[in-house]
């Protein structure tokens, strides 16, 4: 299938109506420059645009606000972030999930600092480590006003409804992206991208879209056909498998806690956690030291993108001077459960 912009709304009218709506109803966010300030010549900081877009992947605006404000208070420029210690960044990221993003964040920050700043085109941004097509387009459009389409889940939904695209996701994504290109204006493409996102987040919502309040009701084919709430359609998702494992929480007589830094690659890569077994259908016990391990009554359950995880938590008090096979004891006064990824915080809660 190929996009047929001629069968949908007029692109110039979409841009005019949507930007007028955005000027009056835009969401206030700590990484945004409001449209009135942009009109007065204030340019968005590409560092803040990039950081927010990386944080927002697979995460909600509400969840990201606090993290963004803490990050930018601690590391106000990309050069500051590039000079940060890996462990400090990973600890600040804890709880946001998808930890490969934090590792790529550092790689990209260091590459940008080395070249003296962010490039100003989508194609050049794509050459940076950890930046994919969506993030490159978002930074190029929002920070530099390059007229490129920025397509996230909100934009896909708005576009699917405007053109009444009934082909299901994820197969329809290339078609929706091509249609979004036909809508993107040469003037104010950054504001247009953010307007599409705001429209999808506040009015053209997944369930019960508020079509009566939408500035694009006229010309919306899904609205005309009475199928707006049904779009975009989605292909059935395969059932997630369940993996299991063991997590070991040890303390010594002084109260010090045994922790380890996970390998750089893989799930929770580079994050602080508790020693454990493999995560599989039939995990093998793998205690990090010899002790009288006791299983806790509560199973820890956590869901990742591709599987559910169930962990049996075992606790023990190690003898003074014990040298563990994995990890190291950290003084209780230096141990911060808040710096742990979410699943490891659940392990700590189950062990306490």
What's this model, at a glance?
This protein is α+β, with helices and mostly antiparallel strands and 352 residues long.
| CATH class label of the largest domain | Mainly Alpha
Structural class: alpha+beta
Radius of gyration: 24 Å
* Cα distance spanning the termini: 56 Å
Query: Percent of residues in beta strands?
Result: 5-15%
As residue ranges, the low-confidence spans are: none
Q: What is the CATH-assigned architecture of the largest domain?
A: Orthogonal Bundle
Dominant shape: elongated
Order of secondary-structure elements: HHHHHHHHHHHHHEEEEEEEH
CATH homology group of the largest domain:
Hypothetical protein, domain 2
Descriptive overview:
- The chain has helices spanning 11-25, 35-39, 46-56, 61-74, 78-82, 86-93, 100-115, 122-126, 133-144, 153-162, 173-183, 189-202, 221-225, 342-351, and strands spanning 242-251, 257-261, 272-273, 294-295, 300-303, 308-317, 328-330.
- With 352 residues, it is an alpha+beta fold.
- Helix 1 (11-25) crosses helix 12 (189-202).
- It folds into two domains: 5-230, Hypothetical protein, domain 2 (Endonuclease III, domain 1); 242-351, Nucleoside Triphosphate Pyrophosphohydrolase (Alpha-Beta Complex).
- The chain contains 14 helices and seven strands.
- Strands 1, 4, 5 and 6 form a four-stranded mixed beta sheet that branches. Strands 3-2-7 form a three-stranded antiparallel beta sheet.
- The chain starts with 10 loop residues before the first helix and ends with a helix.
């Amino acid at each position: 299938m190929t996009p047929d912009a001629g069968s949908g709304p007029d692109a110039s009218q979409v841009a005019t109506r949507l930007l007028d709506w955005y000027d009056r109803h835009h969401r206030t966010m700590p990484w945004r420059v409001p449209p009135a300030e942009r009109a007065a010549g204030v340019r968005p900081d590409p560092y803040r645009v990039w950081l927010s877009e990386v944080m927002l992947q697979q995460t909600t605006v509400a969840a990201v606000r606090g993290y963004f404000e803490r990050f930018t208070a601690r590391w106000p420029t990309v050069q500051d972030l590039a000079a940060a210690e890996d462990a400090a960044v990973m600890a600040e990221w804890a709880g946001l999930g998808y930890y490969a993003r934090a590792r790529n964040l550092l790689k990209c920050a260091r590459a940008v600092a080395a070249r003296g700043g962010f490039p100003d085109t989508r194609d050049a941004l794509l050459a940076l480590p950890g930046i994919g097509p969506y993030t490159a387009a978002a930074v190029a459009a929002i920070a530099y006003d390059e007229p490129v389409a920025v397509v996230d889940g909100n934009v896909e939904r708005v576009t699917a409804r405007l053109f009444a695209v009934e082909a299901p996701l994820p197969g329809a994504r290339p078609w929706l992206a091509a249609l979004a290109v036909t809508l993107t204006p040469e003037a104010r493409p950054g504001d247009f991208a953010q307007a599409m996102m705001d429209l999808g987040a506040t009015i053209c919502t997944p369930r019960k879209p508020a079509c009566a309040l939408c500035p694009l009701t006229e010309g919306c084919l899904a609205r005309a056909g009475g199928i707006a709430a049904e779009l975009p359609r989605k292909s059935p998702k395969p059932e997630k498998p369940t993996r299991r494992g063991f997590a070991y929480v040890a303390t010594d007589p002084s109260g010090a806690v045994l922790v380890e830094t996970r390998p750089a690659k893989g799930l929770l890569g580079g994050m602080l956690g508790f020693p454990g077994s493999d995560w599989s259908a039939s995990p093998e016990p793998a205690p990090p030291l010899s002790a009288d391990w006791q299983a806790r009554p509560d199973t820890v359950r956590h869901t990742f993108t591709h599987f559910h995880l169930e962990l049996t938590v075992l606790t023990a008090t190690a003898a003074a001077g014990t040298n563990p096979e994995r990890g190291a004891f950290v003084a209780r006064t230096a141990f911060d459960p808040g710096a742990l990824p979410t699943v490891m915080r659940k392990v700590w809660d189950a062990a306490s």
